[in-house]
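Example 9 (inverse folding). The structure is encoded as follows.
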């Protein structure tokens, strides 16, 4: 078992992952099975498609169309056990400070713990704090949705704009789009994240400031992009409302922990919704960061989403690895990433409402596990953090699926689909789902030269129409996309990410990689804005680019 870091202490040396017995056994096993074709695996085991499945909390996972055998799964589970996955799961749920570089607990699971549960941070039960914030959010949401909360001129709120970036944007916008079917259509919701002025300008272009509420989401209330947009929003609102500073308190609320800066901005701190340092940004969509989600779908639906999260949390925490959905997905992902050398994973939701789900997963997965050192500070000698990408539904079939089917890269795929449509329309949904099953079948089994020739294809054309197959995929099925289901899906991937990081011996919960560019940007801003020629001390390329930009700024 790996030696883990003691909270607050310097990490001890780890047993290298690649020297573990299970890892070495997997390497030997890979040499035996890497050329096996899914055609052969299915022909030799007629029950494979039924046997290599798992189901829990309303989520069905078919992982049979992967280039694995029963022995592969056994060895991967042994690797998880040798990596101390179970104790690490327990440590997270217990509130240990497993984010040791920032000396923080990792307790997004507390955000969806039921009332009456107990999760301790530094000896204090944080669950009552979580529910106090949820209750405050609910009370505010009812007032806005019911028209009791009025703007400065007495008009009700008909537009809500969430201003944030990273986890303060990707989670809320994904959840809004995913749950749009359940949203209050009397209120329009928009999201501003990019510091590019176009993002803000287009968001407010056709809105009445008297009917618009801004949610400014920044833990410190100092995030450069967010506060730049927030100050532009403040100026826009004031310009439309006669310049009355008192209007700010009726048109802005904050999701933050910095009461002094919130008050300085002009927001009533009674309308400040807090969260905690044990919630990472990319894990915060079910905290106060989800205020826009609650305003859109209502407190009851928001709590249903939290219940879905909690159901998957408990499944992950208690279920043996061989039937544990997040663990199985994580282990298969490690198999492709570290043994087959697959560099990406395609996430393909066949549900239009999940169109932002792949973008959300990009931050969740790549900011978490895009790390090059283990927790004891040594360089990893294996791949971590594959690239996640994707698009919804049949759209991708007419663009990038060509590369997945016949390209030279191995791209494991996650297909996500639902038994019931939210918008029944003729036989649309049957056609949609038929495409899911057809794609996974085509990827797995392809079409041989003999099959192509039997169709009467000329010999010269045969190579172009051959599908090698043996392209792996998971299929995730659920009954319907509901708030509860969305919570389960997000938690499924959260815990899969955790499992991968635990086995790779990396800290999945810090993100130092985003800091350097932000620091350098703060240095460069005054240099590009300076009225006089600045003294530049960057590299020759950066110096020249700054000078070129300053020239372009002056072109009328």
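The amino acid assigned to each position is listed next.
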């Amino acid at each position: 078992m790996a030696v883990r870091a003691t909270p607050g202490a310097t990490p001890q040396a780890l047993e290298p992952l690649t020297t573990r017995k299970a890892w070495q056994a997997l390497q030997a096993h890979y040499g035996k099975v890497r050329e096996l074709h899914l055609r052969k695996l299915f022909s030799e085991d007629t029950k494979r498609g039924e046997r290599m499945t798992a189901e829990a909390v309303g989520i069905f996972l078919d992982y049979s169309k992967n280039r694995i055998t029963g022995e592969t799964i056994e060895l991967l589970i042994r690797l998880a056990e040798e990596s101390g996955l179970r104790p690490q799961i327990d440590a997270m749920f217990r509130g240990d400070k497993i984010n040791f570089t920032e000396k923080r607990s990792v307790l997004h699971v507390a955000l969806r713990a039921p009332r009456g549960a107990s999760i301790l941070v530094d000896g204090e039960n944080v669950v009552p704090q979580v529910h106090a914030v949820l209750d405050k959010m609910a009370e505010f949401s009812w007032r806005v949705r019911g028209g009791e909360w009025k703007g400065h001129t007495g008009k009700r709120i008909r537009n809500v704009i969430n201003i944030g970036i990273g986890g303060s944007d990707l989670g809320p916008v994904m959840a809004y789009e995913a749950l749009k079917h359940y949203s209050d259509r009397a209120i329009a919701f928009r999201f501003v994240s990019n510091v590019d002025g176009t993002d803000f300008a287009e968001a407010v272009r056709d809105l009445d400031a008297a009917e618009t509420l801004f949610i400014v989401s920044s833990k410190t209330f100092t995030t450069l992009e967010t506060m730049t947009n927030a100050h532009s929003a403040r100026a826009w609102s004031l310009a439309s409302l006669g310049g009355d500073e008192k209007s700010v308190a009726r048109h802005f609320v904050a999701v933050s922990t910095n009461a002094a800066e919130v008050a300085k901005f002009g927001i009533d701190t009674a309308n400040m919704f807090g969260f905690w340092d044990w919630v990472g940004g990319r894990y915060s969509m079910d905290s106060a960061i989800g205020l826009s989600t609650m305003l859109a779908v209502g407190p009851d639906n928001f709590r249903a989403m939290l219940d879905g999260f909690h159901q998957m949390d408990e499944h992950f925490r208690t279920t043996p690895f061989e039937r544990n959905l997040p663990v199985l997905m994580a282990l298969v992902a490690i198999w492709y990433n570290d043994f087959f050398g697959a560099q990406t994973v395609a996430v393909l939701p066949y549900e239009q409402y999940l169109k932002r789900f792949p973008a959300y997963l990009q931050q969740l997965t790549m900011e978490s596990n895009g790390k090059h050192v283990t927790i004891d500070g040594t360089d990893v000698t294996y791949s971590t953090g594959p690239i996640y990408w994707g698009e919804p539904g049949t759209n991708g079939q007419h663009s990038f699926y060509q590369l997945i089917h016949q390209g030279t890269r191995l791209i494991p795929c996650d297909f996500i689909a639902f038994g019931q449509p939210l918008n029944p329309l003729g036989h649309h949904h049957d056609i949609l789902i038929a495409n899911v099953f057809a794609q996974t079948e085509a990827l797995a089994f392809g079409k041989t030269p003999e099959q192509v020739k039997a169709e009467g294809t000329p010999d010269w054309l045969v190579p172009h129409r051959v599908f090698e197959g043996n392209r792996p995929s998971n299929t995730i099925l659920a009954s319907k996309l509901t708030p509860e289901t969305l919570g389960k899906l997000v938690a499924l991937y959260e815990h899969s990410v955790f499992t991968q990081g635990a086995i790779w011996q990396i800290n999945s919960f810090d993100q130092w990689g985003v800091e350097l560019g932000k620091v350098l940007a703060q240095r460069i801003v005054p240099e590009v804005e300076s009225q006089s020629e600045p003294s530049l001390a960057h590299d020759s390329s950066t110096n020249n680019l700054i000078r070129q930009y300053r020239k372009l700024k002056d072109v009328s």
